[in-house]
């Protein structure tokens, strides 16, 4: 899958992660989108590197989507832990 494919997958992964973890994020929609893109890359890298599951070139592979969404969720949780209380509400 090309870099553009991973970016598009990351956008969708960010939206799905936001649906699964609703609430206020310090970065808003742009921050969540960037976290989704980074999560897709990190999730794909972790999946192929340590989980011994090479990423398929097919955009609609369930394992690829799972890795991207999982990476986005982990980054979103970490982002909320690190920066969630820095802004007054």
Written overview of the protein:
The radius of gyration is 13 Å and the shape is globular. The model has no long low-confidence stretch (mean pLDDT 77). The chain has 89 residues and is mainly alpha-helical. It has three helices and no strands. It has helices at 3-20, 28-49, 62-83. It starts with a helix and ends in a 6-residue tail after the last helix.
Please give the structural blueprint.
Blueprint: H1 3-20, H2 28-49, H3 62-83
Biggest sheet statistics: none
Based on Cα principal axes, name the global outline: globular
What pattern of helices and strands is seen along the backbone? HHH
Give the overall average pLDDT.
77
The computed structural class is mainly alpha
End-to-end distance, in Å?
41 Å
| Helix percentage | 55-70%
- What is the strand tally? 0
What proportion strand? under 5%
Note poorly predicted spans. Answer: none
């Amino acid at each position: 899958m090309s870099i553009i494919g991973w970016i598009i997958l990351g956008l969708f992964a960010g939206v799905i992660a936001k649906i699964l973890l609703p609430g206020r994020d310090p970065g808003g929609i742009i921050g969540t989108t960037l976290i989704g893109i980074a999560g897709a890359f990190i999730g794909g890298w972790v999946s192929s590197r340590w989980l011994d599951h090479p990423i398929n070139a097919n955009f609609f592979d369930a394992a690829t989507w799972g890795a991207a969404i999982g990476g986005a969720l982990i980054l979103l949780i970490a982002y909320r832990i690190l920066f969630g209380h820095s802004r007054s509400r």
